[in-house]
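SAM-dependent MTase RsmB/NOP-type domain-containing protein structure dump, as promised
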Amino acid sequence: MALYHETAGILSEPASHGGSLKTKVFGRKDLTSPPAQVYALALETCKWSPVLKEVIDNSQLLKDEKKLTPVLALLLVHDFLLAKKGIALPSSHGLRLSVERHKARIASDFTRSRLRRKCSTVDALREQVELSNNPSPVHPRWVRVNALKSSLQEQLETTFASFERVATIQEVLVRATDRLYVDEHIPNLVAVSPRTDFSKSQAYKSGAIILQDKASCFPAYLLDPSPDDGDVIDSCAAPGNKTTHLAAVIYSRRADQAGRPAQQVIAFEKDQTRAKTLEKMVRLAGSHDFTSLNLGHDFLRTDPDSELYKNVGALLLDPSCSGSGIVGRDDMPELHLPGKPEAAGKKAAQDSRKRKRKDPESEANVLVDDDGNTTVVGSEKDLQARLKALSSFQLTLLLHAFKFPSAQRITYSTCSVHAEENENVVLQALRSDIAQERGWQILRREDQVEGMKSWPVRGLAENPAPGYDKTIADACIRAYKDDGRGVMGFFVAAFVRDGAAVQSPTSRRRRSHMAADGTVNDSAHPENKADLSDKDSDDEWSGFDD
Ligand SMILES: C[S@@+](CC[C@H](N)C(=O)[O-])C[C@H]1O[C@@H](n2cnc3c(N)ncnc32)[C@H](O)[C@@H]1O
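structure tokens r here:
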């Protein structure tokens, strides 16, 4: 019932407050309507608002219905004209009647608006509205070909058979569909137009392709686990993009190309709900028979010296962070308001002022981290406090990883742009007692896997913290969301022990063998709480996008 009033409240807030629409909706603690429904209604209404404004103005709805505010009118007319089930209110509800009383006029003005835009059908108009809301996208849709189920060549010949191959990301972005760029840094990765819809694609539904931002592919690729590196831990795994990427890398490099890999991926996910998504994703990606899932398990509670982890040679750490690099966080779509007769306009302004007085949180910025948790950040001080708490957790996680006795390689990544969560965590980790004791060092740029070595965007050039130098800055890898490279904001660095990375792959393998007691345990992980082989394989796949 409150859906329309609550959505109108959010859309009436000043654009400068509370960040993106997503932040505004999901950051509210006082919504009685499902936030996802509020978000969808608000977003769609914004997109359609140039058309709806015209319809409302031409039909003179606001003149006849004095109780309607311009925003409420947009929301109601949106649902009346475009929602499958119409206005989500009982047929006798006053708000619904205020629109439906004028249905003939509204419908004919909608037809006129459509024809004025030269669209013969509502679907054609829908397409035009989508296009006009995203006139020049800067982020392509990145598609990782899942080596467990397919190959780049196979996908080029099937899913992308009709796509024209182009040499730059920009060429992908200028046309609506059917252009494809094969990435130069990450193997098995392609970029297509963000408007490409894969929801009906067989390759997507079967897990042969996975939608994953390029930068999100950096950690598994940089970790570069070889067949003899032993088991690999993913400490913070859900929804599973990096877990399944790790599995694909391991699978492609397995010693016995006829069988499954001898090494395991051991994944931890603390959050029970997110763990279910991880489980689905691992199954769909086809890596369940060599991925041990510790669903609902806190990685920090593992005992690194346990027998269970004696073969762990590499760890991927992708902990919760502020999510400040995530694409789309800043976006607040434009709302075109219909004209309002003078008196009612004053009332709407008064209503809006009342709402704000009642809700002090609407004056603050809301930070939504990459797990979807929200924190009200009213000032720079609040932000610093949040970053301090996050970075303290991130450092704890990294130091815990340093303790695994056979570990030789670790990657640490965030989708944050803040140095506090990135270079500063790396520096503190390098200076820690455990790093000195166990010989952990940064993996220098020159020792990184080819595509990461050649990636041009590196750590911050300057950092006031003592010990930060050019080698460390160059070893750190960054990505920015608006620099034309078409990626999200991201950070990753890798650690190695005792110069392991500067040795040849063969000697690296020998070291790992020694560290892992010369054995590779390929049996099911004893801590595995999910017997995946017994699960129904027909789980519905809803897809994951970074
Ligand atoms: C940034 S997300 C991971 C994204 C994931 N690596 C991917 O690429 O799909 C961080 C995840 O770590 C989980 N997490 C946070 N602390 C954890 C801990 N101590 N142990 C295990 N999981 C943890 C969170 O619940 C969240 O799902």
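The longest helix spans residues 35-59.
lmk if u need the other ones
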